[in-house]
Design brief:
Layout: E1 2-8, E2 24-28, E3 33-36, H1 44-50, E4 60-62, H2 68-71, H3 74-78, E5 85-88, E6 97-98, E7 105-106, H4 110-113, E8 124-126, E9 132-134, E10 137-139, E11 156-157, E12 174-178, E13 181-186, H5 193-204, E14 211-215, H6 223-235, E15 240-244, H7 249-258, E16 271-274
Parallel strand pairs: 3-4, 4-5, 5-8, 13-14, 14-15
Antiparallel strand pairs: 1-2, 1-16, 2-3, 6-7, 6-11, 9-10, 10-12, 12-13
């Protein structure tokens, strides 16, 4: 069995589970443990304790991108996960700001910008390429932007003066093969949900994706973008759909209407279960 525990999300369910604007997943396979994103840092450790997660067992930590609500808990985790390899896109360490009013608000953190996470004892992998981080679990690497209807989802910049738009090339997702098909976990999908789906299909050679879970940054999406996203989810025959975090209530409501049997609530504290592929050992 492969389990995905939502450790951080805007909403929460269950006793002693906290919600915060952010996202973090704990992924357990029969042999390995992976943390994907770390939230802002306030809810991660308490929620991990409430769900019996022990970060000392972490094999790998993956950052979806460099925004504070995904990397804020990294320092606390690294103090516990002494043997974990850290993976991220090089662009995740750049200073990041959000507009539209200048000077922009900083949404990156000094701990990440200054790469204070580096130490002689820790393996750190900064790459634009897809990586198999533990057996069966892979990152997408940098996601090509191939359509004309998706954007980064907001007024993001690389400078406080808001003169240099941030293309958020550091945005990446994570995926693995389960018994029923591919499972795709999104950070914020700043590269676009459709771009991400198509990139994963190209990487794997598969025409269907069983489950899509995570942030989709569709709060300010145009009607065309929503239509194209719904069409892509249908085209890839998605059977479990868990929009979270930055997706936006308008888009989430749309998904609930369009995919009533596939929709899965994914508040912090939720545990998703996926059977291991038939080729795996029990």
């Amino acid at each position: 069995m492969i389990t995905v525990t939502i450790l951080v999300e805007n909403t929460a369910r269950g006793a002693r589970i906290l919600g915060e604007h952010g996202l973090a997943y704990w992924i357990e396979t029969p042999t390995h443990r992976v943390l994907f994103d770390t939230g802002q840092g306030l809810a991660l450790i308490p929620n991990a304790l409430a769900r019996g997660v022990e970060f000392a067992d972490t094999d790998a930590i993956v950052l979806s991108h460099g925004h504070y609500d995904h990397v804020g808990g990294l320092q606390n985790v690294l103090q516990r996960a002494h043997n974990a390899t850290l993976y991220f896109h090089p662009g995740a360490t750049k200073a990041k700001f959000i507009g539209p009013i200048s000077p922009g608000r900083r949404i990156s953190l000094p701990y990440i910008e200054d790469e204070r996470f580096r130490s002689a004892a820790r393996r750190v992998v900064a790459t634009v390429k897809p990586e198999e981080i533990v057996p069966g679990i892979r990152t997408t690497g940098e996601i090509p932007r191939t359509n004309d209807f998706e954007d980064t989802g907001g007024p993001f910049y690389l400078d406080a003066e808001l003169m240099a738009p941030d293309p958020l090339l550091d945005d990446q997702a994570l995926y693995f093969e389960a018994h029923d098909g591919l499972v795709l976990l999104l950070g914020c999908a700043h590269a676009g949900v459709v771009n991400t789906l198509e990139h994963v299909a190209q990487l794997t050679g598969q025409a269907t994706i069983h489950a899509v879970v995570g942030g989709m940054h569709l709060e300010n999406a145009s009607e065309r973008r929503l239509e194209e996203t719904v069409a892509a989810l249908r085209r890839f025959k998605v059977q479990q759909l868990g929009p979270t975090h930055c997706t936006g209530w308008k888009a989430i409501s749309r998904f609930q209407r369009e995919f009533p049997t596939q929709y899965v609530p994914c508040a912090a504290g939720t545990i998703l279960h996926f059977k291991t592929p038939v080729t795996d050992s029990p």
